[in-house]
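Researcher: Next entry in the queue.
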Amino acid sequence: NQVDNQKAPSQSTSGKHKAFPTVHR
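Model: Structure for this entry, 25 residues:
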């Protein structure tokens, strides 16, 4: 989900972890 996180961290995994999606996933 690396590419997905970079493209749309908002709707990547969760909106609360959009600040650092890479760390979350």
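Model: The mean pLDDT is 57.
Researcher: Noted, moving on.
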